[in-house]
Amino acid sequence: MELQWQLCSETNLALFFPKPTTLDKQQKCWALSDSIQKMPEVIEVVIGMNTLSVFIVPLTWAELNTFKDRLSDLLNDLPSKTIQGKHVEIPVHYGGKYGPDLVAMANDLNLSVEAVVELHTKATYTVYFIGFQPGFPYLGGLSESLYFPRHAIPRTQVPAGSVGIGGEQTGVYPFESPGGWQLLGQTDTALFDLTKSSPTLLNAGDTLTFKAIDIHQ
Questions:
Q1: For 161-174, what is the mean pLDDT?
Q2: What is the pLDDT of residues 131-158, one digit of tens each?
Q3: How high is the pLDDT of residue 102?
Q4: Where are the domains of the chain?
Q5: What is the value of pTM for the model shown?
Q6: Domain 87-215 top-level CATH class
Q7: Please, are residues 165 and 139 in contact by the beta-carbon 8 Å criterion?
């Protein structure tokens, strides 16, 4: 894999893994984050989808180059980290008012609505990271048959609990918000609840399956 650190600002570097997005690369991100976080120059490491963003204290140009070299040395022997998370099943109402994009997406994919739902529910997904909103899970494991682009013009309001597909990913909106993903359905399961000791239902390394409650045309 051709990996390199990209300097984004005086205090931020980012690492990008080449496509395709895989669980193995995400596990390497998890492991690298643990190692990098221990460096004295590092303030925070933010994990993305097969990416890492490293925030550091201000350094001189010479110090920054030395730091980049140290980061590059870590890439010579990339570790992996397996997280033994919990498994969660999320019930979903598919189609109709719950999933306004399901029928059109199925037609564009030359699949029946039932086939789309079957493909979406039979996979076991892994939570790669939480982002965009508190509790929003970015999931790996979507069938390639369901890869579908986001809307060119995002909706200004996506209901809380909406289950959607964006590109190679599927996920659930914990809160009402603007969003451009294709909406397949909706769940009543709360992904973020401040009244609980652990407000976020899902965490990196957890696995998830969707279960169809019903399908509306």
A1: 95
A2: 888 899 999 999 999 999 999 999 999 9
A3: 98
A4: 5-74, 87-215
A5: 0.86
A6: mainly beta
A7: no
**Helix or strand or coil: residue 174?**
coil
* Long-range CB pairs of 13-18, under 8 A, 24+ apart, other chains included: 13/53, 13/54, 13/56, 13/68, 13/71, 14/51, 14/52, 14/53, 14/54, 15/51, 15/52, 15/53, 15/54, 15/71, 16/50, 16/51, 17/50, 17/51
Average pLDDT over residues 39-60: 93
**Matching residue, tokens 């990271």:** 129
CATH topology of domain 5-74: Gyrase A; domain 2 (3.30.1360)
- Helix (H, G, I), strand (E, B), or coil: what is residue 15? strand
Q: What SS3 state is found at 161?
A: coil
Q: How many Å apart are CA 205 and CA 7, to the nearest integer?
A: 28
Sorted by sequence, the CB contacts under 8 Å of residue 47 that are 6+ apart come out as 29, 30, 33, 128, 129, 204
Banded model confidence at residue 181, pLDDT cuts 50, 70, 90: very high
Q: Which residue has the higher pLDDT, 64 or 158?
A: 158
